[in-house]
Structures are given as C-alpha cells and as structure tokens.
TrEMBL record:
One of its GO terms (cellular component) is membrane. GO terms for molecular function: netrin receptor activity. Residues 137-215 form the UPA domain. Pfam families: UPA (PF17217). This is UPA domain-containing protein. It comes from Stylophora pistillata.
Length: 292
C-alpha cells in the first residue's frame, strides 16, 4: 500500500508509524561541504515521530531531479543521512547503470527507494562525471505568473525555473499564493545541463501592443539552477503598454535557450482588470483609447 505524505514523499508499506510527521527544508539549512562535482537533488527531509526507533523496516520513496533517462550513465545518486552533526553516505548508485538495485537502495528514473528502521534526516546528492566531455542533465520545469493588474498599469511577469518534483512546485505555489499570483502559462519542461557552465538566456517575442520596460535579470544563472533546491530561480519581466489604445490583455512568447539540449518556449497570457468610472486614469483618458 502506498501512502503519499506532504512534500512529495511516498511511504510504501502496509504499516506506518503513528503520529508520523515530515519536515522538508532547503539543503542550506543543514549545509554539507559538497565537492565541485556534487549538487543537491532533493530538499532535506526530516522524519519526526514519538517513536525514535521503528519495530520493522519502513520503505520510503524520495523524488530526485537527475535526468537518468538521458544521462544516467554520468550520474551517481547518493542517499545521505544526517548523524552526529555531519552527513554520511548510506546509499549510492553505480555510474555504469541507469538503475542500481541493492538490498536496501534502489534508484529509478525519478526517485529512489530505501528502507529504514529508524526516523532520521535524509537528502539526495548527485555526483557527476567531470572526467569526460559529456553533458549531464537535470530535470526542471518553467512557468510564468503575474498579479492582478489594471488597464494602463505596467505588468510584471514572474518566470520560475524549478526542479521537477512536488516539493519545489508546492514551495513556488505557496510563494505565489501569498501575493495573489495568477498562472499565465502552461508548465513546460527544461533539460538543464549541470556541466555546461552556461546561463539559460530568455528572449521575448511577439509583444503586440506591449514593450519590455526592464528585466531583473533576463536569464537564469548557471549557479542558481545548479542550486535550485535552496532558492528557486526567478526572473521578473516588466512590460508596459505602447499603443495609443490601451490594451486590456497581453500575450507574450518567451524562449529559453538552454544549450546543448535546445530551446523551451513559453506562451503566456493574461487579461487586465478594467477600471471603474471615477478612477483617476479613466477621467484622464479618452474612452476611445481603451480597448473594448
């Protein structure tokens, strides 16, 4: 029997301990001295229960962000446990196989499985092969949001590039819910190369009736994407109306160039809130200058 618990984990067992709680937080909260060829593949997961030790093994599934399907031979996925103020490796895949199974550690295309008889703190780390001129990809997603905007105001588009796991998605959604964010685009996939050393540039196209006023920045930096489990990379684009007739909606095409895997295109749109009679801007405008 599978039981989904918050933050994307799955407990796969007919038996689960009572009063089980789960805390998930960025890797930076309990920092690890990662090597140059290592990067986080999950947040830190801490299991909390009244019972410190279990009376039987519990199977746990943790999602990871490595693109095993495309570049599994260049990834080594490690399961680490926090003990005595330090991180210890308790499970590891082989670089010679896309999936590595052992008695207590299994790595699949988008998650690992392991069994534990105690409740502790775990995370996943990816180690990449830098001895060859090869590309190693991480699975990510990109999406655009905006807040409620009135006709005649500048529109701020927030573009996120987040890890392809439930925890990152929920974390981003909580941020947007606090500011009344509105979804502008479908969620698209991005294969980010963790070995290219290149930023992911964003270009904006087909801005009918609008122009980009500023961007901070107009890219996702390489370092921010490598460490996206700590801070979700975000780009804020500000658009202003450039028509004599004010637009009541916006459509924008954004292209992410992520060499060497190619490009990802986002089509984002939103309707602007109409102003009511008595609004200072309405009084200042000729009614014919606002789109119906």
């Amino acid at each position: 029997m599978e039981m989904k618990v918050p933050n994307g984990l799955t407990l796969n067992d007919e038996w689960t301990p009572r009063n089980l709680m789960l805390q998930a937080f960025p890797e930076a909260v309990l920092p690890d001295h990662l090597q140059e060829d290592e990067l986080p593949l999950s947040p830190v997961y801490k299991f909390v229960s009244r019972a410190m030790k279990l009376d039987r093994l519990l199977e746990v599934w943790i999602p990871h962000g490595a693109n095993i399907v495309l570049t599994g031979e260049n990834w080594s996925v490690m399961l680490k446990e926090y003990e005595n103020d330090s991180w210890l490796t308790v499970g590891k895949t082989s670089k010679s196989s896309k999936t590595q199974e052992s008695e207590n550690f299994v790595c699949k295309s988008n998650h690992v499985r392991f069994k534990t008889d105690h409740l502790s703190t775990f995370k996943l780390i990816g180690k990449i092969d830098t001895s060859k001129s090869t590309f190693v990809f991480k699975r990510m997603k990109v999406v655009a949001f905006c807040s409620e905007t009135r006709v005649g105001e500048d529109l701020v588009v927030r573009v996120y590039c987040f890890d392809d796991c439930e925890w990152s998605f929920e974390r981003m959604m909580r941020t947007e819910q606090k500011t009344g964010g509105r979804l502008m685009s479908p969620i698209e996939s991005v294969s980010f190369s963790v070995t290219s050393g290149k930023d992911v540039d964003i270009s904006v196209k087909n801005l009918a009736g609008w122009q980009m006023k500023k961007a901070s920045p107009l890219k996702f930096s390489y370092e921010s994407l490598r460490n996206s489990f700590n801070v979700i990379p975000r780009c804020d684009l500000v658009f202003q109306n450039c028509r004599k007739t004010l637009s009541t909606s916006i459509f924008v095409e954004m292209v992410l160039n992520h060499e060497p895997s190619g490009e990802t295109t986002i089509y984002a749109s939103a309707s602007l809130k109409k102003r009511i009679l008595g609004d200072p801007l309405v009084r200042a405008l000729d009614p014919e200058k606002v789109e119906e």
